[in-house]
Amino acid sequence: MALLTQAPKGTQDFLPDVTPKLQYLESTLLQTANLFGFVEQRTPTFEHTELFVRSVGDTTDVVQKEMYTFEDKKGRSITLKPEGTAGALRSALEHGLLNGALPVKVAYLTPCFRYEKQQAGRYREFHQFGVEMLGAGSPAADAEVISLVCQCLDALGVGDISLEINSIGCPKCRPRFHEALRQYFSQYKDKLCPTCLERLEKNPLRILDCKDPSCHEIAKNAPVVLDYLCDECGDHFTGLKKRLDAMGITYTVNPTIVRGLDYYTKTVFEFISNKIGAQGTVCGGGRYDGLVEVMGGQPTPGIGFAMGIERLLMVMEANGAPFPPQVTCDLYIATMGEEASVKASQLAADLRSEGFYAETDTVGRSLKAQMKYADKIGAKYTLVLGENELRENRAQIKNMKTGALIDASLDQVVDKLYEAVLESSYIEIAESQTLEFKE
RNA sequence: GUGGGUAUAGCGUAGUUGGUUAACGCGUCAGAUUGUGGCUCUGAAGACCAUCGGUUCGAAUCCGAUUACCCACCCCA
Predict the structure, then answer these.
(1) Contact of A270 with A257, CB cutoff 8 Å
(2) pLDDT digit string (tens) for A118-170?
(3) For A274, which DSSP code?
(4) Least confident of A42-56, A91-105, A299-313, A415-429
(5) Among A6, A26, A56, A217, which one is most buried in terms of CB atoms within 10 A?
(6) Are A207 and A177 within 8 A, CB to CB?
(7) Strand B positions with any atom < 7 Å from protein CB?
(8) Residues A183-231: pLDDT tens digits?
């Protein structure tokens, strides 16, 4: 029974009261991306499992325990995408986008799936907005991508999000750092938590952001990545900081940012909010210069980010960010009798083909009930159609806000409404402007 | 995967130590004299009190299990 009436764990329904917000959010994000030359790319919801194992990395939690993997009817191993980058790159490689003008700049909006225990801001099906820039290895590219995130957050009126950046080096300098970390943490083997003991062997970087108090304390004095960067990575990082400064983007350097996906190199960054609970990372990203090659392409640098749509919405709501006003009915046509109802259908059709939002009774309510309904849905104007109106071919358009009536021939309803709506929208604009001036 | 909390109509809640018709607000629907909404008033519909099992003469109230949700760890968006 519950199987029929309950959505699967960790999933959620987006009802008509929030979908307009999502549409606004999504179109704003894509439009902002366009300003930077990123164009939307759509790729499948599922891919071959191998793709994620190779790109995300088989030591990561995502691959080891969070993927929705199954066999299709021919026994192929298929996985619902747990993140967006792998599919985006696969698609770019498959279609030879890298043979065209570089850099390749794509944006995507996609559902992602991770089998995790849910909590605030964490779902099993969630949505990511992301961007990938391929073929650009300079710090200018990093700055561009980070600046894009800032502009998105700005455009959406999300305040109060902090940017943290770090560099985790490249395959040339990272081994030195790993070695230094191993040496350092090995002194404290008896004080590290069990998972960190494992990490010591596999990925000592991760000990740095362990929340265990004991590990955290030890990590405080651990070697810092930034001291171990090779010249190239060091220059890259200062190049990025220079550009962020020039663009007036404030950030803090946080050497403990590590990221849980194996493909990152050099720059990594996170945009964090403290208003939505423990899962405060609204956007995370970084550079992945080795990834294209790992996937079988020519060595090509790349950088990108992913933003959690649900988390973004949560932050916006928490900060009281503005959303566009709800679209309301332009004209509600109340009817009395069969003939009027037929005429109303015709009128409504005419109005809609002119781009108006029109409604009329479809459930057989009394006139009074129809008026109440019109009020409830926030109709701007109403019009009553009964025997009198049909006989005289005239009706009165009522302004629901002021109560004023406009006399109109039934043949002129579209024109009259056009005038009226135009006029009232001018008034609204004027009002909102005077309000702004007052402030 | 680990730990804590919660579970009563569409939504938000009440229901004191088990006692019989499970209450309230919002919302929905219908009315308040003849063809016009908002305010007010009246009325109605809507809940096997998450599920299953147990204790008891009697369970929304106590016990157990299950499921779901919330929160934190882990990890990440």
Answers:
(1) yes
(2) 888 999 999 999 999 999 999 999 999 999 999 999 999 998 899 999 999 99
(3) S
(4) A415-429
(5) A56
(6) no
(7) 1-3, 28-32, 35-38, 67-77
(8) 888 888 777 777 777 777 777 777 877 767 777 778 878 888 899 999 9
Q: Give me the numbers of helices (H) and strands (E) for chain A, helices first please.
A: 16, 16
Enter the DSSP assignment of A298: -
Q: Hey, what domains does chain A have and what are their CATH numbers?
A: 2-173+229-318 (3.30.930.10), 331-423 (3.40.50.800)
Nucleotide nearest to A279 (CA to C1'): B76
Predicted TM-score of the model (pTM): 0.90
Q: Strands A69-71 and A394-399: what pairing? A: unpaired
- Any strand B atom closer than 7 Å to A64 CB: no
- Residue A392, burial from CB neighbour count under 10 angstroms (0-12, 13-18, 19+): exposed
* Cβ-based contacts (< 7 Å) between A 108-167 and strand B: 114, 116-123, 126, 128
A64: β partners: none
Phi and psi at residue A134, to the nearest 5° = -115, 135
At how many degrees (to 10) do helices A174-186 and A194-202 cross? 140
